[in-house]
Design brief:
alpha/beta; Glutaredoxin; seven-stranded mixed sheet
Length: 345
């Protein structure tokens, strides 16, 4: 069963592009008792084989709550919360659901209120009644994680630093996960200082040149997709680029492929093989633009305005709330591929 905190990393893709790529622990051979990192909140209480073990009403209701991820769903969440209470859900299970929903819907003001109630319960948290915060030390660590995120979203990075360090101290098994929050917020801050060369000429795989300014003229935004032939994940990501372009292209989004190797022959072969119709460029050999993004993972994309402002950096595959939210602010609809939590990257 995947780590609860790693699952929340996926829920926070909007604020932490890097967190979505945090490695998730291998599934445990036996889901009970939970591993040190806790259980996956999305699969809370659900049997592996519904055909042989029917889902109980309480667990089904909590599962429905865990799936909600939009602030517009708040009335529905409130109804489900009351239903779960009537079905006997524990205070621990209800708070877990509220925390998860606040993370998924990015409702930070609501999270502050939930955190007050959660912090009050932590000293008497009943691990046996909990759904996924059920390992010694994890309630205290979750308390500090929420403190850290609320502080960061409020611009208090000193408060974030203090709380995230305490979370690591309380739950060192998840230290790598917490590091992703640190990296994610640093990347978010870095976006404001990235200088995208809108008028610089980039070579195309077909032997021509193009500038970002020319490509985005009359459009809403650029979606830069960095790729390389070095990794299978990056090559596989080209298919996603094509799918995303088909959905976003008609809405004023200019998708651009950027091969960071500067290998025209390889880039042109990939363009033909995948029947690419959008701009297919070569990054400078110094990889100056790619290096500014502060990531070594693939696929990697950046959403850039006609003025060169970076609105998003991350992996656009899967349940990427970050890209969804950035596009929504521009009046662009991006349908999330699935309502389920994605599997381990």
């Amino acid at each position: 069963m995947a780590s609860a905190l790693a699952a929340i990393a996926l829920l926070c893709a909007a604020i932490l592009p890097a967190a979505a790529q945090a490695p998730m622990p291998a599934p445990a051979a036996d889901p009970a008792p939970a591993p040190a990192g806790g259980g996956d909140p999305h699969s809370l209480g659900l049997p592996k084989d519904p055909g042989t073990s029917p889902v109980k009403p309480k667990e089904q209701t909590i599962d429905e709550m865990m799936k909600l991820k939009d602030s517009k769903d708040e009335p529905q969440f409130a109804k489900l919360l009351e239903k779960a209470k009537s079905l006997g859900a524990s205070e621990e299970e209800l708070l877990e659901a509220e925390i998860t929903y606040c993370f998924r819907a990015q409702m930070w003001d609501k999270l502050k209120e939930v955190h007050t109630r959660f912090a009050a319960l932590v000293p008497r948290w009943n691990l046996e009644k909990a759904g996924y915060i059920r390992t010694a030390g994890q309630p205290e660590a979750m308390n500090e994680l929420i403190k850290a995120v609320v502080a960061a979203e409020g611009g208090d990075m000193k408060g974030f630093e203090t709380a995230i360090k305490e979370a690591i101290w309380l739950n060192p098994e998840e230290a790598n996960f917490y590091a992703q929050f640190i990296l994610g917020y640093r990347r978010k801050a870095r976006m404001t200082s990235i200088a995208v060369p809108m008028n610089a000429k980039f070579a195309t795989s077909q032997g021509g040149t193009a500038t970002f300014a020319e490509l985005v003229k009359g459009k809403k935004v650029l979606l830069l997709n960095f790729w390389t032939g070095f990794t299978p994940e990056s090559l596989a990501g080209i298919t996603e680029m094509v799918d995303v372009e088909k959905e976003l292209g008609p809405q004023g989004v200019v998708s651009v492929g950027l091969n960071i190797e500067g290998n025209a022959a390889a880039a042109e072969e990939a363009r033909k093989e995948n029947k690419i119709t959008f701009p297919w460029l070569l990054e400078e050999k110094t990889r100056a633009l790619y290096n500014q993004m502060g990531s070594t993972t693939f696929p990697l994309s950046a959403l850039v305005t006609p003025e060169g402002k970076v609105l998003y950096i991350g992996d656009p595959r899967g349940d990427d709330i970050g890209l969804h939210e950035a596009l929504a602010k521009l009046g662009i609809t991006y349908k999330l591929p699935t309502d389920d939590l994605p599997p381990s990257p």
